[in-house]
């Protein structure tokens, strides 16, 4: 865990109610794909947990959706504004667990951490297929970035306005991708629907209301096959065999 | 002149009065990677019961203006794990006095837990929590009735010769008879206050935010309420008091001590800023200088 002040260098709408925020800080720590940060939002008591979408030297990219007061306040911030972040939280995805072809499955704003995951898997020489689900065409994000990294990207939209009509589960059944390991991040109903369709060789990034984000309050505990685990401290990424769904 | 921040609590010397509050500091060792736990005055360990407990389903946290509601529901691995595993682990990282925080659902459960904590060399102080709002039996009910508070204190006193603090709930119309009942039964001190019961509703989903429906409110908004409780109890009792509720600055530590606290617990502030305790401790000497305080102990209960 590191506490650091970052400066907003860009805060750009990329889809309805969805923003890409770039933050810079000198000697910003390198963060792992699937880790998260806790952003102090003036006027809110608790910080807001947001996934690392992309961590580069001196720079951090977040992608977030406005759902309430905290994210609305973030959306209104101008470049130059300073934010205090706790960084390096959570375990992150296990890149080394993938012995060959990787499959990424994401839905909605849950695709955010897949950017860096895809970059790091590609850097490790892994072929990547990505199945991304959105409600409608205007909400699609990250497709171009993942394609630019060399991923084979398939999109599903619930209303059929782009790509496969339906959910990520439908995309999985229609595309039938070949893979040796998979990574899932998205809304809980999506992850639960995918769980029975996928083999053991994969991991899921979970989300829950958090108090601290640093393992202190036990606010985000879930039952696992190996006893209670704090999502913020022992996750947010859990191997399939730990999830008693 | 060097500012003297040390205090004596239950016969134990603390290098400063700042103690992370139970339930807001993990198992006690998580922050060791971020700062030296020896800097803390003492550490209140996570609330522990006789049997292991998973606690409540999630969501367990609901944010509010001025703080948060929690309904963790006493998730803990049980008293045996505390004394055999957790306390030794924390002790291996620091010499800081350790406070075991005990909860129960029956008088005897409190007693057995206190006996086990008493036998644990790493535990310096026992804090008996008769004020948890997030469990459906026991917990807070012991803290709202002087006779029940006396019964738990009597049993705990029999179980241990270590300094015994009783942690009280603000959910009462008069704290004085309850505080006095604990003092009369031999408590060495009191901790005030635990959380205030509260509720939030998600107006879009038309459902309570917390799976448990209600939770305990804590955070900065609790501070003036805690100061009032501490002052009332300090005025009525002779035993030392640990002030707790909404503290997040060195100034508030001093205010709590002026109200009558010998030491101060910092809870929710750790959740917003995991470095809250060392930050407060570092700020204390300068604030003391500003206020012409040489020795922190001199200001205890001056109000
Ligand atoms: C590990 C993790 C990673 C996340 N990554 C992202 C991301 O990359 N992009 C993104 O848009 N969102 C992400 N979220 C969800 C994001 O934290 C919430 O949308 C955000 O906290 C909402 O804050 P608010 O003040 O706008 O909403 P409000 O509803 O007003 O918030 C009230 C309280 O509930 C909490 N809360 C509300 N919704 C959620 C939620 N879905 N998950 C957790 N806490 C919630 C808030 O933190 C706050 O404490 C992530 C959540 C977690 C746990
Ligand atoms: C997440 C959380 C868990 C808590 N767990 C316990 C506990 O196990 N035992 C206890 O005596 N108090 C517990 N408390 C209460 C705190 O120790 C403290 O009394 C209360 O939060 C008020 O202080 P604060 O405003 O500084 O947080 C908990 C509080 C929070 C926020």
Offer a concise description of the structure:
Chain A is 17% helix and 36% strand.
Protein described:
The complex is a heterodimer of chains A (245) and B (303). Chain A has six helices and 16 strands. With 245 residues, chain A is of the alpha/beta class. Chain A has two domains: 2-89, Translation factors (Elongation Factor Tu (Ef-tu), domain 3), CATH 2.40.30.10; 95-205, Rossmann fold (3-Layer(aba) Sandwich). Chain A has a seven-stranded antiparallel beta sheet. In chain B, helix 2 (107-118) runs parallel beside helix 3 (146-159) and helix 6 packs across helix 8. Chain B is globular. The chains are: A alpha/beta (245), B alpha/beta (303). Chain A binds chain B through residues 1, 3, 40, 44-47, 86, 208-212, 214-223, 228, 233, and chain B through 23-26, 30-31, 33-34, 46, 54-55, 58-68, 70, 72, 75, 209, 219-220, 268, 270-275. The site of flavin-adenine dinucleotide (FAD) has 21 residues of chain A, from strand 4, strand 6 and helix 1.
N-to-C series of helices and strands of chain A = EEEEEEHEEHEHEEHEHEEEHE
List how many beta strands of chain B DSSP finds: 16
The CATH superfamily of the largest domain in chain A is identified as Nucleotide-binding domain of ferredoxin-NADP reductase (FNR) module
* CATH domain class name of the largest domain in chain A: Alpha Beta
How far the N terminus sits from the C terminus of chain B, by CA atoms, comes to: 25 Å
Strand content of chain B: 15-25%
Shape of chain A: globular
Number of strands of chain A: 16
H/I helix tally of chain A: 6
Series of secondary-structure elements of chain B, N-terminal to C-terminal: EEEEEEHEHEHEHEEEEEHEHEHH
Give the oligomer, counting copies of the same chain as homo and different chains as hetero.
heterodimer
Strand arrangement in the largest pleated sheet of chain A? 4-3-7-1-2-6-5
Note the beta-strand portion of chain A. Answer: 35-45%
**What are the distinct ligands in this entry?**
flavin-adenine dinucleotide, flavin mononucleotide
Give the fraction of residues assigned to helices of chain B.
25-40%
Structural class of chain A: alpha/beta
Average pLDDT of chain A: 97
Mean pLDDT of chain B: 96
Question: What's the architecture of the largest domain in chain A, going by CATH?
Answer: 3-Layer(aba) Sandwich
Proportion in helices of chain A: 10-25%
């Amino acid at each position: 865990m590191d506490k650091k002040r970052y400066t907003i260098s860009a805060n750009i709408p990329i889809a309805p109610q969805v923003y890409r925020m770039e933050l810079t800080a000198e000697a910003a720590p390198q963060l792992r794909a699937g880790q998260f940060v806790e952003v102090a939002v003036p006027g809110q008591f608790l910080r807001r947990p947001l996934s690392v979408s992309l961590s580069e030297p001196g720079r951090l990219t977040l992608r977030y959706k406005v759902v309430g007061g905290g994210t609305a306040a973030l959306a209104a911030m101008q470049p130059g504004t300073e934010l205090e972040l706790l960084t390096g939280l959570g375990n992150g995805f296990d890149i080394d667990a993938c012995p060959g072809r990787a499959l990424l499955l994401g839905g909605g704003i849950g695709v955010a951490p897949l950017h860096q995951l895809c970059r790091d898997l590609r850097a490790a020489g892994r072929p990547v297929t990505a199945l991304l689900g959105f409600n409608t065409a205007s909400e699609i994000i990250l497709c171009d970035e993942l394609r630019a990294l060399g991923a084979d990207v398939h999109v599903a939209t619930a209303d059929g306005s782009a790509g496969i009509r339906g959910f990520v589960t439908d995309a999985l059944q229609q595309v039938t991708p070949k893979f040796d390991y998979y990574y899932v991040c998205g809304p809980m109903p999506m992850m639960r629907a995918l769980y029975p369709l996928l083999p053991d060789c994969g991991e899921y990034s979970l989300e829950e209301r958090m108090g601290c984000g640093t393992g202190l309050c036990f606010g985000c505990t879930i039952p696992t096959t190996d006893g209670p685990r704090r999502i913020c401290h022992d996750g947010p990424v859990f191997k399939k065999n730990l999830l008693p769904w | 002149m060097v500012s003297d921040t040390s205090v004596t609590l239950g016969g134990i010397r603390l290098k400063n009065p700042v103690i992370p509050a139970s339930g807001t500091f993990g198992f006690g060792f998580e922050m060791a990677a971020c700062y030296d736990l020896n800097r803390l005055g003492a550490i209140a360990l996570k609330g522990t019961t006789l049997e292991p407990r998973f606690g409540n389903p999630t969501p367990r946290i609901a944010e509010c203006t001025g703080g948060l509601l929690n309904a963790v529901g006493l998730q803990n691995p049980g008293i045996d794990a505390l004394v055999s595993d957790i306390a030794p682990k924390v002790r291996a990282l620091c010499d800081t006095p350790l406070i075991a925080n005990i909860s129960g659902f029956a008088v005897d459960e409190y007693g057995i837990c206190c006996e086990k904590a008493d036998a644990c060399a790493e535990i310096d102080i026992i804090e008996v929590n008769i004020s948890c709002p997030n469990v459906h039996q026991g917990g807070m009910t012991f803290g709202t009735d002087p006779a029940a508070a006396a019964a738990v204190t009597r049993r705990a006193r029999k179980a241990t010769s270590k300094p015994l603090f009783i942690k009280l709930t603000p959910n009462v119309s008069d704290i004085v008879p309850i505080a006095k009942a604990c003092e009369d039964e031999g408590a060495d001190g009191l901790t005030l206050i635990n959380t205030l019961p509260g509720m939030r509703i998600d107006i879009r989903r038309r459902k309570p935010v917390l799976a448990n429906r209600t939770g305990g409110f804590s955070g900065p908004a609790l501070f003036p309420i805690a100061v009032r409780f501490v002052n009332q109890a300090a005025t009525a009792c002779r035993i030392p008091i640990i002030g707790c509720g909404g503290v997040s600055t060195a100034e508030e530590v001093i205010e709590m001590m002026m109200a009558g606290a010998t030491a101060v617990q910092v809870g929710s502030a750790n959740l917003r800023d995991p470095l809250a305790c060392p930050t407060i401790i570092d700020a204390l000497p300068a604030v003391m200088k500003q206020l012409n305080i040489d020795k922190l102990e001199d200001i205890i209960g001056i109000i």
